[in-house]
Design a protein that fits this description.
With 253 residues, the protein is mostly helical. 68% of the residues lie in helices and 0% in strands.
Length: 253
């Protein structure tokens, strides 16, 4: 609609231009001013249309994530948090990141944790598989193809025990790590408890949280990420302390 409107304005402006040529005096001045205004509006319309077309891939990716990533610990909401937190961390460090790369990587980094892309039973880590197949998801969406390799790199190293290369990879890595800590980290892991008694049960989930508290913090690399660590560590440690006390060392959990 915007493209059509812009094209119509340009067409009418061209017709007006031919009319202006045969006018004199103040009428020519008025028509010229009107013509310039019309051309400006047309340019804005076409620019807006171009921007909308370029960003259209984001809505496609977002809807894809909404539809396919359903899990209380690493589902769609986790992807949204990773994207937002990664941007905040980079901004706090005054580091410029490519937002196209960061958005695509954050929203799709856990794709291989879900069927039909999950190959964990074959011994393929979800980060490696996600990096391998992400181009098949982005192809045809309008995502800039020259940025796909950067998306692959960020997805491949998003787990806390891997070494990121490049700003987008670094801040996605740290955002994903921090999301395992604090209140949200506790909520994510406890939400995995099987209500029917399957794995993980409550004590196992508590042990997972203790492991996260011990293992994740040393792998947070960015200055802004490290600044956030103490509060998140305290939150999770306090939660575990109370949980242990109130459940007889997790036995009644």
């Amino acid at each position: 609609m915007v493209i059509v409107s812009g094209a119509r304005i340009l067409n009418q402006s061209w017709k007006l231009m031919t009319t202006v040529r045969i006018l004199d005096g103040k009428y020519r001045m008025r028509c010229t001013a009107f013509l310039l205004a019309a051309l400006s509006i047309a340019g804005c319309c076409l620019a807006a249309a171009s921007a909308a077309e370029q960003d259209g891939w984001r809505e496609i990716v977002r809807q894809f994530a909404v539809q396919h990533f359903k899990n209380p610990a690493w589902g769609y909401s986790h992807s949204v948090r990773d994207y937002q937190l990664a941007k905040e961390l980079a901004e706090s460090d005054h580091v410029t990141v490519d937002d196209d790369v960061l958005f695509a990587a954050a929203y799709l980094h856990d794709i291989a944790a879900f069927a039909p892309w999950d190959r964990e039973k074959e011994g393929v880590d979800h980060a490696d598989e996600g990096a391998r197949i992400v181009d098949t998801i982005l192809k045809g969406t309008g995502f800039p193809p020259n940025k796909i390799d950067a998306v692959r790199g960020a997805i491949r190293t998003h787990m806390f025990d891997r070494i990121p290369v490049g700003p987008e990879a670094l801040y996605l890595h740290d955002a994903d790590a921090l999301d395992w800590l604090g209140a949200i980290g506790a909520a994510r892991v406890m939400a995995l408890v099987d209500p029917n008694g399957g794995p993980p049960d409550g004590p196992k989930a508590a042990k997972m949280l203790e492991d996260n508290l011990a293992r994740v913090p040393p792998h947070v690399l960015s200055p802004s990420g490290k600044q956030r660590l103490p509060d998140l560590q305290r939150e999770l440690a306090e939660f575990l302390k109370n949980l242990r006390r109130e459940t007889e060392d997790y036995r009644e959990l």
